[in-house]
Design a protein that fits this description.
Layout (H helix, E strand, L loop, with lengths): L30 E3 L46 E3 L21 E3 L30 H14 L3 E3 L4 H4 L34 H8 L12 E7 L5 E5 L11 H12 L7 E6 L5 E5 L20 H12 L6 E5 L37 H6 L1 H4 L9 H12 L10 E2 L19 E6 L3 H10 L3 H14 L6 H14 L7 E2 L11 E2 L1 H12 L9 H4 L25 E8 L2 E9 L5 E8 L7 H17 L4
Parallel strand pairs: 1-4, 8-9, 9-10
Antiparallel strand pairs: 2-3, 5-6, 5-16, 7-8, 7-11, 12-13, 14-15, 15-16
Helix pairs in contact: 4-9, 4-10, 9-10, 10-11
Organism: Micromonospora carbonacea
EC number: 3.4.16.4
GO molecular function: serine-type D-Ala-D-Ala carboxypeptidase activity
């Protein structure tokens, strides 16, 4: 595992890069919308990663699962596994989006071990629906303020962001209070006029750390200056490397470029061919909720859509629900995904119609989010599950089990007995704006949102809304941005696929472009980047010897598969210079999750600690 695919042809292997397009008028200040707030989480244990999967690495050999470690006593016999078959390597996109309903398979409590695929929740997972406690808003506000200042990110005026967020804003109220003096800065922010590090200085700071055995036999690195776009360090910088969830940075940038930050994904209900038939049409919103207990904040809701449908039908009683999820042609599982992903709790069948990211019980998933690090039981047929919930909301409990797949009429038919004509829109709800979807994807490394957003890129560039179509469209958009699309090869948009290859220099070019101000909409990605030691997938890290200098100063996206560890983002040096970095290790020793993470944290903390001149 971790070998480069033979079809990947890196260009410019000497590692030298020209400044990215538009860097001439760079300011070195990264625009972060004021109202765009990442969600802080409870500290996570170092031995768990929400992106981790457990692949088979050879005949009779399998590394221990990095996500949780079962006790010797084995798993509970009550746990069951779905038997959905993995997608075979090399399978092209198929027109059938149907995932078979898996049969429940009991798990033997006597056969648990490091070689077993994960088929149930981690120890301590509580299936009761009691809600989990959240941090007080005041604490979150302080954490966010310190994190933004510490990471050296400039907060710009809201401007168009209020519109992106869909908020009209309250009428300003006269302020009669005495203005308080400006507080003293807590941590130094970035300074575009600060001395630029030298290549020799960066080499001296991080070169010795890259030889750590915990990083494995291949570590590819790129470090660049955000203000100038100049490369300061490259070690295999142009070589394609397995990126894991760092892939989501490319997903975020391309969807923000292809769709506007205020774009919303619709879910519609239309009249079917038969009187009273309601067709629920999926538009690809992964955050759609059934009701107010949905998993994602601010999500569109099926109960609101059902109310619209009842009003539109008037005296016609709903008789049947059909689901139309044909916008995404399939397959529902990605090429190159490890065999346990369909049942592993961090991935799901990708459908144009789903609720709560295909989670079976969003209330339980929210309650256990911190303890399980995002693990949740997922429906293998999320479109039918959404249809059944919608049928119940329409007052058709007996018909919920009769929900079927179909295609919505295109319109033009005649009404019958006062019923709406086939194809008539009966109602529509819309997702949160793209700015919020991107934030949720990056902060919590949400794999299902990532795959859904790649399909939005595909639709915007007239490609099939599939794994292949999304990857092709992302390549197109990266080329439109002037980035080297020949340094990225994608099979999915979440990073779950081991076939993905991205060069570290493409990642630093991408981050620098997002931060130089020439494409303001791309700066949205920084609002969701986890802050070292504070939030997201970096909460709980940067607390050991040699790493604390990066706490609150590093903002980065992480990536983890078994044997693959990556981190890419921003750091402010001791002199106040804003740098972008990408460190990808795709041949790390098995079972070294904690040690490899600390080794990566030491590398990025060294950049924060030095002036590197």
């Amino acid at each position: 595992m971790g070998r480069e695919d033979s079809h990947y042809r890196p260009q410019g292997v000497d590692g030298r890069k020209n400044p990215h397009p538009g860097s001439g008028n760079a300011t070195g200040r990264v625009p972060v919308p004021e109202a765009h707030v990442p969600r802080a989480q409870e500290p996570a244990p170092d031995d768990f990663d929400p992106e981790a999967t457990t692949p088979i690495v050879g005949p009779g050999e399998r590394p221990p699962p990095p996500a949780w470690r079962p006790s010797a006593a084995g798993r509970s016999p009550d746990l069951v596994a779905a038997s959905a078959a993995p997608v075979a390597a090399g399978v092209a996109d198929q027109p059938a989006p149907v995932a078979p309903e898996p049969a429940a398979v009991p798990v033997s409590p006597a056969t648990s071990g490091p070689g077993d695929p994960r088929v149930g929740p981690p120890p301590g997972y509580d299936p009761s629906p009691t809600r989990r406690r959240r941090r007080p808003l005041a604490v979150l506000a302080v954490v966010l303020l310190l994190a933004l200042v510490g990471a050296g990110l400039a907060v710009v005026r809201p401007g168009p962001v209020a519109g992106w967020l869909g908020d009209g804003g309250a009428t300003p109220r006269a302020n009669t209070e005495t203005a308080e003096p400006d507080p003293a800065p807590v941590l130094a922010g970035p300074d575009a006029n600060a001395p630029e590090p030298t290549a020799d200085g960066v080499e001296a700071a991080i070169g010795p750390l890259l030889g750590a055995t915990e990083l494995g036999s291949r570590v590819n690195v790129s470090v660049a200056d955000v203000t100038t776009g100049r490369s300061l360090y490259s070690r295999g910088g142009d070589d394609g490397t397995v990126p894991a969830s760092v892939t989501k940075l490319a997903t975020a940038v391309t969807v923000l470029e292809a769709r506007s930050p205020d774009h919303r994904i619709p879910t519609r209900a239309v009249a079917g061919a038969a009187p009273g038939e309601v067709v629920l049409v999926g538009g690809g919103d992964p955050t759609l909720a059934v009701d107010g207990d949905g998993f994602y904040p601010g999500a569109a809701r099926l109960d609101a859509l059902a109310e619209q449908v009842r009003k539109a039908l008037g005296n016609t009683a709903p008789t049947r629900v059909t689901v139309d999820s044909t916008l995404f042609p399939g397959p529902v599982y990605g090429p190159g995904w490890d065999s346990d992903i369909p049942t592993g709790g961090f991935g799901a069948a990708i459908s144009a119609l789903m609720t709560d990211g295909a989670r079976v019980n969003p209330v339980v998933a929210k309650k256990n989010f911190d303890a399980s690090h995002g693990w949740a039981e997922r429906s293998p047929q999320p479109d039918l599950a959404a249809g059944r919930a919608f049928a119940r909301l329409l007052g058709l409990p007996g018909a919920a089990g009769e929900v079927r797949r179909g295609t919505a009429p295109t319109g033009g038919g005649a009404s019958t007995g006062g019923a709406p004509a086939p194809g008539t829109e009966l109602g529509k709800v819309e997702s949160p704006p793209m700015i919020r979807l991107v934030d949720m994807m990056i902060t919590d490394s949400d794999n299902v949102i990532a795959e859904a957003l790649a399909r939005q890129v595909a639709l915007a560039r007239n490609r099939p809304a599939s794994f292949t179509g999304g990857a092709a469209a992302m390549d197109i958009v990266l080329g439109e941005l002037g980035l080297p699309a020949d340094e990225i090869t994608l099979s999915d948009a979440s990073g779950l696929s081991r076939r993905n290859r991205i060069s570290p220099s493409l990642l630093t070019d991408l981050i620098a472009l997002a931060g130089d101000g020439t494409h303001p909409e791309l700066g949205i990605i920084f609002g969701g980047l986890p802050v070292a030691g504070w939030s997201g997938t970096l909460d709980g890290r940067y607390r050991s010897d040699g790493t604390t200098a990066g706490a609150g100063v590093v903002r980065a996206k992480t990536g983890t598969l078994t044997g693959v560890h990556a981190i890419a983002g921003l750091v402010t040096t001791a002199d106040g210079r804003l740098l972008t970095f990408a460190v990808l290790a795709d041949r790390a020793p098995a079972g070294s999750l904690d040690d490899t993470r600390r080794a990566l944290d030491r590398v990025t903390s060294a950049l924060a600690r030095c002036g590197c001149r």
